[in-house]
Amino acid sequence: MSAALDPVSVIVAKRDGRELTGGQIAAVVDGYTRGRVADEQVSALLMAILLRGMSRREIVDWTGAMIASGSRLDLSGLRRDGHPLVTVDKHSTGGVGDKITLPLTPLIAACGLAVPQMSGRGLGHTGGTLDKLEAIPGWRADLTADRLVEQLEQVGAVICAATADLAPADRKLYALRDVTGTVPAIPLIASSIMSKKIAEGTSALVLDVKVGSGAFMTTVDDAAELARTMVDLGADAGVRTRALLTDMSTPLGRSAGNAVEVAEALEVLAGGGPPDVRDLTLALAEEMLAAAGRADVDPAAVLAGGKAMDAWRALIAAQGGDPAAPLPRARHTRQVEAAASGYLAGLDALAVGHAAWELGAGRSVPGEAVSPVAGVTWHAGVGDRVHAGAPLLTLHTDHPERFERALARLDGAVTITAERPQVPGSRVLGRVE
Length: 433
Ligand code: URA
Known about the structure:
The protein is of the alpha+beta class. The protein has helices at residues 7-15, 22-33, 39-52, 56-68, 101-110, 129-133, 145-155, 168-178, 186-200, 220-236, 259-269, 275-291, 299-304, 307-318, 349-358, 403-409; strands at 79-80, 83-84, 88-92, 115-119, 157-161, 204-211, 240-247, 255-257, 332-337, 342-347, 375-378, 385-386, 391-397, 414-417, 428-432.
């Protein structure tokens, strides 16, 4: 931070509701990344941003400063058989049981596009795509930039950890937000996600903005504002961006955890799987194809033809995994029976996410190891008939002493009604372009 810019004056300006200048934002973000501005000062600034908000111009400047803290990948030269390869990516704001990246990435590769999917690890109750894939024996998340480009050209897809020099400011800021109660601020979430996606070099992007108890945004209005902010940031940076708002009041599919979610993704790739997972995979695939200028391709036909499964095998093998190896299974399981007969009317996403986390599927501090076998599976979807005493959920873990805490998290999570509840036809609640 330059001598002229005192961090306290920046904190005070935002505390008092004033707009920060581009110079102030660049200096704080750069100074913090280089260790020249203290954690406690940035913590105070983040809280002031959460309480006071940011203008569109401030969000653009904050995102730009985070991108400028590292390097930006250039994927414009990708080629296959001498022809340019178009890149398109998807990002979800995080949900429970959200394994969509697993079937979607190879499906889009099978449609002839390239997906440079840089994913994260889970923290708290939302699972991380990399943690799920690491349940596959041998699979590795770390790729060099050269290997990433090579794999995109050969396989059409990568799912990997972000390289260390991709928006490093976000890594530091996110860790600080996580311990200062400043994660759920729209300007901070939007800039965090979009700085990484813009730096990753994709030319088109589809955002899956989750709404409901298991998501950062619990109302459709907040989710729509987050989506609008991110779509505008993408457009300003030349990335063709659109968003779907999707329901996360109940967890996706029938599983939350690591290996259990990979198993479900494989069912979708084989042409089956829970209807909500399959439908959302296809809805997002259609958006990705349209954003990339290939609305003529029918992803359902590609899925049915088995090419997405071939692309999955190629993707897993290219990153050291054995696609034919059996997935690991938990040494201990515990059933939860339905307390009454009737219809399943609700299964709370946040409670299921917390239960999976208690069983070992997630971490409580960054860097902690997760258990590949831990998770929760359920045997009925909302609207299905259930019978008193019949198994409704199964808890999976290698550590049976964790069952009690997981069961406590599930207390009150299941709603059974005598009347069949209204079941929404789709998880898609809206779209922003
Ligand atoms: N995911 C991110 O990458 N950043 C956020 O701030 C929230 C979700």
